[in-house]
TrEMBL record:
Domain of life: Bacteria
Residues passing through the membrane, by range: 7-25, 45-68, 88-109, 140-162, 174-196, 233-262, 298-323, 343-361
Species this chain originates from: Microbacterium foliorum
This protein's UniProt keywords: Membrane, Transmembrane, Transmembrane helix
Name the UniProt record assigns to this protein: Uncharacterized protein
Keyword hit for Transit peptide: no
Signal peptide coordinates: none
Amino acid sequence: MSQAFRIFARVVAGHWPALMAWYLGGEALHRVLIELAGFVGGHTTLGGLLLLPLAVAARLVSYVAMYLTVRPSLPHSRREDAGGIREFASATLTAILPFFAFYTAWGLLDADQIEFFQIANSLAVGGVGYDPAERGDRGGLIAVGVLPVAVLLVAFVARLLFARYAARLPRWTIILATYAEALWTFMLFMFVARWWSGVLDWFSQREAVGWLRGVGDWFAVNLAPVAIVWEGAAWVVGILVAALIVPAAWLTVAGVIFGTTFDSTPSLGRWRGAAARGAARSAAMSVARTLVMRLEGLWAAVAVIWRGGPLLYGAYALSYAAWALAEQAGTRAVFQLIGGHEASFWAGFFPLVTVAVAAVTEPLRVAIVVTAYDGVLGRPRSELDTRPSGVDVEPGQIVVAALDVEPERPVDVVGKQEDEQDAVRIRLDGA
């Protein structure tokens, strides 16, 4: 426990200004990109939609930078061969999927879309009025249709092509690959959120749900103790979600950014494809290998949650809960210090106050998360390690460099090499 306090103090003392700067930079860029996407959406919704994922990516980049900044202060997670633009770009790529999932689940993606629509709609109304025929593709109203689905598919195919041919492309194209990854992931989670909202709306309109609500109202009126127990259970569930699931999500994001891996390769990593031959096999295996490696890295990051043991995770969850309470209390105290004002005043100052408080508290959250993460990696029984985010090594020592691309070689040479490796395995097994 004393070592955890030392690591926490080292991270806070050594990196607080840098963490604060990265957080403020990400929030400022997020704000600018939301405004830019809304402005473009006031003239063309599609153009604004293509810019909106960059606003989410701005926050992701700031968090990736914050976690990689403190890595040298972590005794069990730092690496001498880590660092540089290549690792930063690759860590951002691998963190897009889990970060966007967390961003959507916490309602932040929906908040960005609402703000985008408000800005774009006000511009469209001021320009052409409320007539739908005059507005056309203006106003920021994102509807699930052929065009958004086409954007998702094009971005996904582009990402696969970048992954396949990255060895032949200039290094700067990793920026385009990151944008393609962010775009198709953004569109996917937007569709999932819309679908889930539709499912909930449909479910809420069923007669059985209305009957259950009536039963609940009857219990609330006639049996107050049952209602109290029900409300208490709902409160406990909310507390458990806030106290356990949210810290676990941040621990997973940190694990993905740091490139968590298993000491011994699990069965997922030993996966081999079918014995097909030819160009189709090469392309399919390249895509499948990329997906398998990405899933293995995500699974290793998730494993950090329980491989530290209940005592370590319990201490981490309590520390996170204390941080959340302190942040809420600090925000409330600042608002009370400012005092009451008109709505027009708070329209401009409310975001500034919340960002100012977060600039002080976010470095503490990062320090808590990385201290817990490093504590898990420091346990020999965790069987977890980190690797440079820019290079993935597959079983068989096939190096997959930037953008998870295998070095291309003639198909017959690959086939012969695999046959020779199989023969060696047979002889070893026979011995």
